[in-house]
Amino acid sequence: MKQIKQEIINRLALYDDALLTRDVASLLGVQSETIRRLIYAGKLRFIRYDGDYVIAKSWFIDYLDKNEIMPTYQDRFDKTIRDVLDFCVVPRTYKEILALTGYYDKAYLQKRITRPLLKAGKLRLTIPESPHHNEQKYVTVKHPLFQRENQE
After folding, report:
1. Count of structural domains within the chain
2. How many C-beta atoms surround the C-beta of residue 69 within 10 A?
3. Stronger pLDDT, 1 or 147, i.e. the higher one
4. Which domain holds residue 99?
5. Is the pTM of this model over 0.70?
6. How far is CA 77 from CA 99, 109, 120, in A?
7. Those residues with Cβ within 8 angstroms of residue 82's Cβ, 6 or more apart along the chain or in another chain
């Protein structure tokens, strides 16, 4: 998390001393409504100006120092991808992957996770000639560097 905070502070140099809710939202990778909720909850200092909330850079940095950064959707999605790849080192069924991810819908899992990973060559099917086979499983493709290390 410290790395994320430092990255945000580095990007903060591109902004004026007064930040609008959309600026703070962009820096944190969230919606403006999320920033307004932080303001309403008293977690982020602000002033009202011309119908918008204005946050001083120093107030925003204070917020970063006092609060844990919320993981963005992309951060959570990237973690899910890493979890699936780690989990599929051993061949796994789609039901096992559904249980791991917490998704309920097979079509959503295929659209968001398995098909993109198959296309990227990071996952492979155990029975590629029959993609709809009842005993089909997914397995992580080992990186060529790791295979060479294991052979030596």
Report:
1. 2
2. 17
3. 1
4. 73-151
5. no
6. 16, 12, 16
7. none
